[in-house]
Amino acid sequence: MFKDLVIHFYTNTFRGCITQGHNMTNVIRIRSGLKDLTVCKELHTSVSSSLMQSIFLRGEERVRTVSERTFEAFGIIYNCSIYTEKWGNNFFRGVASKTETTIHNEKSNFMIGKTFYGEKEEKKAIFPLEDQNAGLTSKEIQTFYNISEQVPSKIYINSSDFTNKTPDFKSLSYFIQLMPGEEKQRLNELDDSIKSSSFFSQLHEEPLTEMNFKQLFSNIKEELGFKSLEFEFKCNCNKNSMMSFIEKLDLAELIELKKITRIMKCSHCSEIYELTSKDIEPYIK
């Protein structure tokens, strides 16, 4: 299974993380049957957001980014929704969809949610999308950090060169936060230093490794510490959990359900399960 590397880095004045998110975006894109290139960019923004936030958590915490919008293109109304989530220690999952509709319900927002270890309640922040046609962009994620975080933050998410012929694309994303008490100008200087590196544009196309990460940050004068984590696409769904609703059905509904094979799809990963008459029989008493 393909994995994505996320590197968490830190000094005395700032902390951050960097990733490319290639594999998670491509896996979700393929599993969701996604072809619209604008939605693919939106998906990658969501993947990058969830991946980069996850690096600051420990263990079983969950962090997810969800966007929903209704927009019109060439006289056709579409509903678009994207869900990406880091769960467990090193697992990641998500779905994306774009479907035609006849109702324009002005739905256009995104949510970032975090569930910390040992807590049942999710901490949510919901914001409107600036442009329904563009969907979720790095600008919206930056707005979230400007409003929600108590320390200055800088976001960079690039997802260019999607094509219809190949799922590969140029990509690089990083997230930097200034430590408390530091001058905000220091954050801008650091951001400029990264982007002015001769290796910056090259890293959009080369696989992210610890070696080229160090090269990208070679201009940093402070002592730089870092740690790396790999994330793989995996969901904790299974057929038994998908069938849990059957126990709530009455006899007439069970008999009707038994007549034909039905398809169940996980809302977190798009995995498909078949519900056959043999699956129903044990519940008919």
Q: Kindly name the structural category.
A: alpha+beta
Placed side by side, the strands forming the largest sheet appear as 7-6-3-4-5-10-1-2-9-8
Give the strand content: 25-35%
The DSSP helix count reads 9
What radius of gyration results from the CA coordinates?
21 Å
Mean pLDDT: 87
| Global outline | elongated
Under the CATH scheme, which class of the largest domain?
Alpha Beta
Low-confidence stretches: none
CATH topology annotation of the largest domain: Hsp33 domain
How many domain modules? 2
The separation of the N and C termini measures: 42 Å
Please tally the β strands and state the result.
12
* Architecture per CATH nomenclature, i.e. the level-2 architecture of the largest domain: 3-Layer(bab) Sandwich
Order of helices and strands: EEHHEEEEEHEEHHHEHHEEH
Helix proportion range:
25-40%
What's the story with the biggest beta sheet?
A: 10 strands, mixed
CATH superfamily placement of the largest domain: Hsp33 domain
InterPro entries: Heat_shock_Hsp33, Heat_shock_Hsp33_C, Heat_shock_Hsp33_N
Pfam families: HSP33
Keywords: Chaperone, Cytoplasm, Disulfide bond, Redox-active center, Zinc
GO molecular function: protein folding chaperone; unfolded protein binding
